[in-house]
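Page 37, continued from 36.
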C-alpha cells in the first residue's frame, strides 16, 4: 500500500507523529510519499528507504492510495483543498487541539493503519461548496464562506437571494454560508445549527445581526444562494476556509451552491458522527453531572 503524508509544519507533536508513522510504515512494508519539506519537520527521514520525496504535496498524492494528514482540523482543510481533484481518501491523525475532522488520536495510529490495511474502515464523503464571482472566478470551501466587515467597526448590509427570490437584507457584522461539514465550526460558534454530513443543504447564518428576529436559515444546496454587497461602497472581506479573496467589480455578487467536488475521510468501523459530537464538543453533556 502507498501512503502520502501531509503534516502541520510548525507543530512539534505532528512532527513526532510523522516520525512514528514512518517507523510503522517501514515495519509494515508500506511505501510512503511526501513533499521535500517533510525533512524540515522530521530530520531523520533520510534513514527511511521506503520514503519517496517530491517537490510538492500534490505530486506526492498522485502516487498514493491513502493520504495521511497529521495535525488538527486546519491541516485537514489544507489537505482537502490540495486533494480536491486527487480523489484519494484522507486519514486524519489528530495532533492539534479539537481534532473534529482529524478524529483519530496519535496513540491509536498503529491500530488505525492496521485497520486501513485490512480494509476495515468506512468512507465519509464531504462535499465542497463553490462560490462563483461575477467575473467567472470560482472558489471552493469545505467548511464555509464568510462575508465580513473589512477595516471598520461599522456593520455591513448584505442582500441574500435564493433561486432568484429575495430572502432578506442583513445588517450585521457579516454572513456565514456553511456546508454540513462546516456547521460545527464558525457556524456553530455564532449560534447556527449542527447539520449531519451527507445532508444536501447549506446554512446561512448572520454574524451578530442588529435584529432579534434574524435567525439562521437552512437551504437546499443544489440551487444558487446569491449574496450581494448593497450598497456597493462598503468594504467587505470575503473568505473561504480562512483564505481571503478579492471581491470583483463595483457591484460584488457571489453565487454559492454545493460543488461536484468532494473528499472522502476515512473512519474506523466503530466510530460514529454522534460519538464525535459527544466526545469533542461535549454535545448533550449535562453540566450538573460534571460538577458532582
Amino acid at each position: 500500500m502507498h501512503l502520502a503524508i501531509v503534516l502541520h509544519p510548525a507543530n512539534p507533536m505532528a512532527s513526532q507523529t510523522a516520525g512514528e508513522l514512518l517507523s510503522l510504515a517501514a515495519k509494515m512494508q508500506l511505501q510512503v510519499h511526501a513533499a521535500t519539506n517533510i525533512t524540515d519537520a522530521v530530520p531523520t527521514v533520510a534513514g527511511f528507504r521506503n520514503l519517496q520525496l517530491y517537490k510538492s504535496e500534490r505530486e506526492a498524492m498522485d502516487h498514493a492510495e491513502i493520504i495521511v494528514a497529521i495535525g488538527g482540523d486546519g491541516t485537514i482543510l489544507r489537505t482537502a483543498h490540495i486533494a480536491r481533484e486527487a480523489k484519494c481518501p484522507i486519514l486524519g491523525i489528530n495532533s492539534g487541539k479539537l481534532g473534529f475532522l482529524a478524529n483519530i488520536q496519535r496513540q491509536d495510529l498503529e491500530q488505525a493503519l492496521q485497520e486501513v490495511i485490512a480494509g476495515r474502515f468506512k468512507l465519509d464523503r464531504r462535499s465542497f461548496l463553490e462560490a462563483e464571482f461575477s467575473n467567472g472566478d470560482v472558489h471552493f470551501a469545505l467548511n464555509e464562506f464568510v462575508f465580513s466587515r473589512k477595516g471598520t467597526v461599522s456593520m455591513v448590509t448584505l442582500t441574500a437571494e435564493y433561486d432568484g427570490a429575495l430572502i432578506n437584507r442583513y445588517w450585521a457584522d457579516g454572513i456565514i454560508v456553511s456546508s454540513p461539514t462546516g456547521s460545527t465550526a464558525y457556524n456553530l460558534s455564532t449560534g447556527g445549527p449542527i447539520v449531519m454530513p451527507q445532508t444536501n443543504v447549506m446554512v446561512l447564518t448572520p454574524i451578530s445581526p442588529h435584529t432579534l428576529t434574524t435567525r439562521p436559515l437552512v437551504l437546499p444546496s443544489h440551487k444558487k444562494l446569491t449574496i450581494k454587497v448593497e450598497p456597493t461602497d462598503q468594504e467587505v472581506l470575503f473568505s473561504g476556509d480562512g483564505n481571503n479573496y478579492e471581491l470583483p467589480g463595483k457591484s460584488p455578487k457571489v453565487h454559492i451552491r454545493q460543488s461536484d467536488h468532494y473528499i472522502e475521510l476515512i473512519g474506523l468501523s466503530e466510530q460514529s458522527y454522534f460519538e464525535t459530537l459527544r466526545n469533542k464538543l461535549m454535545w448533550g453533556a449535562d453540566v450538573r453531572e460534571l460538577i458532582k
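The mean pLDDT is 90. Flag for discussion at group meeting. Residues 9 and 37 are 8 Å apart (CA to CA).
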